[in-house]
Amino acid sequence: MSELEGEGRGRLIVLSGPSGVGKDTVIRRLLELAPELRRPVAFTTRTPRPGEIDGRDYSFVTEDRFLAMRDAGEFLETAVVHGNRYGTSRSRVDELRRGGQDVLLKIDVQGAAQLRGQGSDALFIFLAPPSAQVLLDRLTCRRTENPQEVAVRTRDAQREMAEAGNYHQVVVNDQVERAAAEIAEIVRSHPG
Ligand code: 5GP
After folding, report:
1. How far is the CA of 9 from the centre of ligand 1 (A)?
2. Is the pTM of this model over 0.70?
3. Under a CB-based contact definition with an 8 Å cutoff, are residues 16 and 169 in contact?
4. For atom 6 of ligand 1, which residue has the closest CA?
5. pLDDT tens for residues 71-80?
6. Alpha carbons 74 and 92: distance in angstroms, whole number
């Protein structure tokens, strides 16, 4: 757990949800509604998608570099998602929170479980689809993944959905605007 304690530090908000639920779209709108939220750039071993920029969307690193960082204790949490490694930098989060800034993490259910296990003071929010069929449709329509990737993400999505009950709040992404506004309100009323 972070060694940071005391007054004045920013809050930690964790947002999880299955692949295809629309996390990125909701987060984009949420950041307009709650511009005080900061997102530290996470590390991943996955290949950048077209249009993604290193240092903005993720810090893209090799497997060796990732494992060296993990072994040096540089990650607050790590996970393997769809066969790729992801990790949140401990120092990036701590610096922001120490500066009094609220931090938003988009992490999968494994990472969230690690933070919970560390006794993190985070607010845990789960973004859920209106139905399993809607999620399947979204995963199938997305053009960025090939059929094998879609199959992996569908299987992982079912596992992720089973974790929803471990979160403080579950928000249904029936409409981006409504879901983002609900999350903004939850964050605003969270004492920290
Ligand atoms: P994508 O590669 O599509 O951006 O993200 C795939 C999944 O990885 C998403 O479910 C997202 O929540 C998760 N993810 C992204 N960054 C992190 C991270 O730093 N830690 C963990 N645990 N999961 C992450």
Report:
1. 25
2. yes
3. no
4. 81
5. 999 999 999 9
6. 10
